[in-house]
Design goal:
The protein is α/β, with parallel strands linked by helices. The chain has helices at about 1-5, 10-15, 25-45, 70-85, 120-135, 160-170, 185-195, 220-230, 265-270, 285-295, 315-330; strands at about 15-20, 85-95, 100-110, 140-145, 150-160, 200-210, 230-240, 240-250, 255-260, 275-280, 300-310. The strands form 3 sheets. A 6-stranded mixed beta sheet has the order 5-4-3-6-7-10, with helices on both faces. Helix 7 (about 185-195) packs parallel to helix 8 and helix 8 (about 220-230) runs parallel beside helix 9 (about 265-270). Keywords: Cell membrane, Membrane, Transmembrane, Transmembrane helix.
C-alpha cells in the first residue's frame, strides 16, 4: 500500500515544483472555512432542554462520527487544490558542443614571492586571483606548473576544477627545494604539456616577480619554441621595483629589500608568443589583468538544455474525486445524524 500513499508524503510534496504555487495558499483557507462553518452552526443551532434528565448526559465517542463527512470533504477539497496547483518534476539534460581552450598556469613559487607589496604577499595574491580565474572558466582544460630554481608540472590539463583549485591552494614557498627563477624551464614544461593538446587555442599564463636566474633553457628560446607549437603566451610581472616590505625585524619594525623585475625579457616572451605582457603592482591591478585575459580568451562552448516536465496532478485529482464520491455516500448514512454531546 506504500506506493498508493507515496504522493501524500511530505518529502514527495516538497520535491515538486508547482506550476501555480500561489494556489497552495488556499490549503489553510479550506480548514478555516470548515472551522468557521462549525462555529456558526454552534451559535445558530437550537438546543432542547430535557427536564427529566438529572445532571448532564454522558459524552459518547460515537458523537464524533458526525465530523467524518466534513473531514472527508475537506480532504477532497485540499487534494483538489493540490491538483490545480499542478505539481511537476523536471528532468534536465545538458549537451555541450564546441571545444574549450587549453590553458597552463605557470606560477613562480621562489623565495621572492614572499615580498609584501601585494597583500598578504605576492604568492598568496597570485593564488587567489588564479583561483577566481579558474572558477570563471567553463569547459576549458587547465593545467598547473610551479617553478622556482626548477619547474614541475603539478597538474596536467584537466576539467576537474575542484582538484585544480585544491592544487592552487597547496602552492607554497619552498615547494621546490632549488631556489631561483627558472622562467625558461617553466615555459618548456608548459609547452610540453600543451604541444599535443587537441584544443583550437592553447594558452600559457606565466606569473613571475623576477628575472631568469636558473635553469638551462633560455626564456626567449623557450618562448620561440612555444610559439612554434602554436602556443599563445601571456606574462604577468608581479610587484614593484625598488624597496619592498619584507616581514619585520626583531624589534617589530618593517624590513625592506631591493627587488627588480626583468620587464624587458617578460615583454619579449609575450611578444614572441603573440600574447601580451601585464604589470601588476597591487592586488587590484592583478585582478584586472586576469579579468582582461578572461575576456581575451573566450571558449566557444555551446550548451543545449533539454527539459522534460512531468505532471503529477492526476494522482491528486483521482484522490479528490474519490473522496468527494465517498462524501456523497456518507451524507446518506447515519453518520450525518450522529447525536452531539
Amino acid at each position: 500500500m506504500a506506493p498508493l500513499f507515496d504522493g501524500l508524503r511530505y518529502s514527495t510534496l516538497a520535491g515538486y515544483t508547482w506550476a501555480h504555487p500561489r494556489l497552495l495558499l488556499l490549503l489553510p483557507a479550506v480548514v478555516l472555512l470548515f472551522l468557521l462553518r462549525e462555529g456558526l452552526a454552534q451559535r445558530r443551532r437550537a438546543k432542547l432542554g430535557v427536564a427529566f434528565v438529572r445532571g448532564q448526559a454522558r459524552a459518547h465517542w460515537s458523537a464524533l462520527l458526525r465530523f467524518v463527512p466534513d473531514v472527508v470533504l475537506a480532504l477532497s477539497l485540499m487534494l483538489g487544490v493540490l491538483a490545480l496547483a499542478r505539481p511537476q518534476r523536471t528532468d534536465e539534460r545538458v549537451e555541450q558542443s564546441g571545444r574549450g581552450i587549453d590553458i597552463v598556469l605557470a606560477v613562480d613559487v621562489s623565495a621572492s614571492m614572499e615580498l609584501q607589496d601585494l597583500q598578504p604577499n605576492r604568492l598568496e595574491a597570485a593564488k587567489r586571483v588564479a583561483q577566481a580565474f579558474v572558477q570563471g572558466r567553463r569547459g576549458d582544460r587547465i593545467g598547473l606548473v610551479a617553478f622556482a630554481g626548477d619547474a614541475y608540472s603539478v597538474l596536467p590539463l584537466t576539467t576537474d576544477y575542484e582538484l585544480l583549485l585544491e592544487e592552487l591552494k597547496n602552492l607554497r614557498l619552498g615547494l621546490i627545494p632549488t631556489d631561483g627563477t627558472a622562467i625558461g624551464t617553466a615555459l618548456g614544461v608548459a609547452t610540453n604539456r600543451l604541444r599535443t593538446a587537441p584544443g583550437r587555442s592553447r594558452v600559457c599564463i606565466l606569473l613571475s616577480d623576477g628575472e631568469n636566474t636558473a635553469g638551462a633553457l633560455d626564456p626567449l628560446t623557450a618562448a620561440q619554441l612555444a610559439h612554434s607549437f602554436g602556443l599563445k603566451l601571456y606574462t604577468i610581472g608581479l610587484g614593484r621595483d625598488g624597496r619592498v616590505p619584507y616581514g619585520q625585524d626583531e624589534l617589530g619594525r618593517p624590513r625592506y629589500v631591493e627587488t627588480r623585475l626583468d620587464e624587458t625579457t617578460m615583454r619579449q616572451i609575450a611578444s614572441a608568443g603573440e600574447g601580451q605582457f601585464f604589470r601588476a603592482t597591487d592586488n587590484s591591478a592583478l585582478r584586472s589583468i586576469f579579468a582582461r585575459i578572461n575576456r581575451l580568451e573566450q571558449s566557444e562552448i555551446k550548451l543545449t538544455r533539454y527539459r522534460n516536465t512531468h505532471d503529477y496532478y492526476r494522482y491528486y485529482l483521482y484522490w479528490c474525486v474519490g473522496l468527494w464520491l465517498l462524501w456523497l455516500a456518507l451524507k446518506n448514512t447515519f453518520l450525518t445524524n450522529a447525536l452531539e454531546d
